[in-house]
């Protein structure tokens, strides 16, 4: 039988004459195994506890969710982006992390810092409201520096060979009227009776937030687009970029301005009247273009040097036709009592009849599809079938216009690039309500409102990356299928359908919504354990669940006991 001899030596290393030397200090082999283990632990900096000592959990606080956000923030270099180490940076970072895991008012956030590990680890527990507002001002002061670095990272030519920047505008309501930015305008939140602010987000082609701008609540889309162009050209100094925006954002007037500025291209869509001109009897947009496929390139002298791509979405055409029929029927049903009142003599006078009819027609915006004959004692209503047929013929059809050269991107690629605007819309949903809860805005000073929006923007940037990294554990489609028809609606992969059906990941772990996953990570607590009556207190993590352990594997980081 082979004998195994084991020796335990205590050695030290030192440098002598430029060389590393080793010296044996003691032979620990004669000591009991427990004593050798104790020496090894002590040399490793571990704290030794007397066997059999009483154990008390003095406190337990949620940790896993903030640790996950902290890990992603470290990987993205966010702390360095926020500035030099110091009190203001720690407060700003704590505000961003808190906004990702538990969005709330500033006062509620300050209170919550006592009950999560971010408060103790970043030494922000007990911070005053004045300090938090000072940190908000600090963040706003760093906005230009931060956004320039984000633009270089996500929009630069090496990482963004398509040279595309997506842009869109949204709004959120305010709770007061004191702020100069609080104005009444077109509410995208359906809060017509409240003042609002507007804010525009610039992203890379995948939808990663890169920059944000805040405007008064009555700002028109083209004005906001001008600010984005200025940011790209002057602030970020990016050349030969292609600005991607919807038809309300990049108008004909804005395109003329882009031509004057030079150095920037565009990708947008034509408005309805412009499409109607192309679809005229002698125009290039004819239904025969879609006999074999749902898209085709056309040309027109009104758009020199541009590519026009006509697309037809049959599913959208069917939806619009059905909706139009429903609105026409609803409008006619609402007009029937008015017509009955006129016939019975209860309503008379052309002016009064016209006012009542106008209110009804404006309800569903169907006035263009009805022909009216009004006198003081009569009202005749008929559908304008010619108008209805003309509009129906263009159902599901949209036309893209772009300066992207054919040798840089094919037709399907251009269509896909325009459809990427859905990524910006998804970001707005995340920013406004689902994840970050930007609205309503409760600040009254203009700079505080801008600081609040920028804080939420940085939290959205973190959330974008966190969602991607944790996609395996959520219902997100990790491998969406490549579209054979770029115009057709997107479909989910078989793997994603299987995840939804079984509610388990590819590794057999239970799935969560993204927010549910954050909540589950929060159940991974850090426990302050005291050994003995007056013994040491040692922070110890609870045993992670398989989902929690897998989440940190996906984040490519060990579960940290502390954030610093």
Please give a structural write-up.
- By secondary structure, this protein is an alpha+beta fold.
- Among the domains are: 9-48, no CATH class; 165-306 and 408-443, no CATH class; 316-393, no CATH class; 470-480 and 487-554, no CATH class.
- Helices cover 43% and strands 18% of the residues.
- It is built from 20 helices and 15 strands.
- A hairpin with a 5-residue loop joins strand 14 (525-531) and strand 15 (537-541).
- The protein is elongated.
- The model has no long low-confidence stretch (mean pLDDT 90).
Task: Provide tags for this entry.
single chain, 564 residues, alpha+beta, 8-stranded mixed sheet, 15 strands, elongated
Side-by-side strand order of the widest sheet: 6-5-4-7-8-13-10-9
Beta-strand content estimate: 15-25%
What would you call the structural class?
alpha+beta
Largest sheet: 8 strands, mixed
Q: What is the helix fraction of residues, given as a range?
A: 40-55%
End-to-end distance: 51 Å
The tally of strands reads: 15
Based on CA inertia axes, which overall geometry fits?
A: elongated
**What are the segments in which pLDDT stays under 50 over at least 5 consecutive residues?**
none
Number of continuous helical runs: 20
- Average per-residue pLDDT, rounded, comes to 90
Over all CA atoms, what is the radius of gyration?
A: 32 Å
